[in-house]
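Let's study my pick:
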Amino acid sequence: MDKNTAEKRIAELTSLLDKYTYQYYVLDAPEVSDYEFDMLMQELKALEGEFPELVLPTSPTQRVGGIASGKFAKVEHAVQMASLQDVFSFEQVEAFLARCTAELESPEYSVEPKIDGLSVSLEYESGVLVRGSTRGDGFVGEDVTANIRTIRSIPLKLENAPEFLEVRGEVYMPRDSFFELVEQQELNDEQPFKNPRNAAAGSLRQKNSKITAQRKLDMFIFNVQQCRGREFSSHSESLDYLRELGFKTIPSYKVCTRKDEIIAEIGRIGDERSSFAFDIDGVVVKINSLAQRDIMGATAKTPKWAVAYKYPPEEKETKLLDIEVNVGRTGAITPVAVFEPILLAGTSVSRAVLHNQDFIDEKDIRKGDIILVRKAGEIIPEVLRSVSHEDGSVPFKLPDRCPVCGAESVREDGESVLRCPNVQCPAQLLKNMIHFASKNAMNIDGLGDANMKLLIDSGTVKSPADLYTLTREQLLALGRFKDKSAENLLNAIEASKNAGMERLIHALGIRNIGQRAAVLLCERFPDIDKLMSASKDDIAEIEGFGEVMAESVSSAFAEPHRIELIERLRECGVVMTYESAAREDDRFAGLTFVLTGTFPTMKRDEAKKLIESFGGKVSGSVSKKTDFVVAGEAAGSKLDKANELGITVLSEAELIERTR
């Protein structure tokens, strides 16, 4: 095929694929099968591969994602991406409506679902998407254009578009995609996201946009920020126009004039929210007329012409059928409520952790009770209280012996947790082995839960050290492994020998010692022998350690079974020395930070790692020694104390700016 013919066919394919993408991801009404779509995409990829000079940034093939830059560039928003004032009762909604009526003549209101996601701006020049950025602090966000391009419902090019258009919307993760991601994270021994909003935020800020592309994010557009070449008189008019351009606009919005209409619409959306494919955390009520919005004005933080009504946490009663008792990798004996399935926040739930005996006693929870369960902004349900007892019920007590191995359970001073003290307990062994091989520990690919259970149940391994003596013949004899999978696993085990001392310390599963604490131990005692011979007082001198953590480490390395394990691992060639990771620079050296509230784009641990990568320390409490407090939304007493002590308060965006 010559270049001219290829160029015409590429244009045809691009037009068809854009049309089918819009039908599938925006209208939810596909005209062709997935197979037909895939064949057209393959044809386009082949032509672009043959004629790379014809590949355009707006091509459907450019949504797959690539490697983004190490840091996201700063974006200053020309129009502030303001947050809304939250209200929590119909009385507060009515008070807002009364204020509007007092200032405006016959106001109309747009009532629409408040999507629980991440607020993002999209900018188009002559119809072409040129930039996508996060809200940040409302004034400064981050450039996430490469990742935005991977979201299929976002048009890369607009037909009959104005000269310049900036729109605002909410990036979210549909529930089905969220549960699929969590299942995959659990299979990979990764820490799963807690809810779809966190998953969306974490996915949109991936350095590798190929990962973002795999996360199946979506986006609803709910506002025009700027527009050159078209004017609007109302919010509803702008939404209709955006829909005509091909955007996936906020669903189920309704223009209302009366108070009773608005309250009824809030109720309707609340009743139907479990049927949505996405999470909402409330309803936005806003003045429809743009001219009337100007009359109402805004405060420094929020517009006066809108409020966000937040639904109260969803709570439901159900019958407690049983209380299971599970044993964790540290021997913790944990009770779990098993109850008749109920629908909460759009998903069926039937289990909730009851934590410990004190929790059960405080709420007087008994088998057969009617209990009250909720999901308050999280995926994981919790038991609030017992509503009523069944006739003849008796208080529940955790067993005085381990339900797995029969060892007498113990409750150590100062702890509320009951534990099995038997380190050879099968339940502890399995979970300790899974932890040892997990991604954040020794990172042995191919040793998930099922394979590890098979190795233990068959008696093939009885200790982490046994992994390093496994043979191909042993694996093939289990029936689950073939030649290639056995070879891959043995190679992964061999590679894990060089994981490093910090991973090994984390893999040993010492109580109260996570990844960061393991690194701190290694920085102070850079080989295993120095660490094992260190006194509790020596360990307690490490900045960030206390008596409890020091006692945990000191006691752990005095246990005969752990000493034996380390010697066996040493004989197998596992590296037991520490090589310090390179630091960005030491600009935060000697500075102490405190994190509080919810950040717009980063998780707390991401912010902590960023600070530590520049030599800073992150503390859990504010004191006179604190240099900076980094505050997000819903910052509480820590922010108050920082202001009281005159400590400098930074936003997430200001923290990021200091690392550039």
In short: Confidence is low (pLDDT under 50) at residues 65-70. The first helix runs from residue 3 to 25. The longest strand covers residues 314-327. Residues 592-658 form a domain with the Rossmann fold fold (CATH 3.40.50.10190).
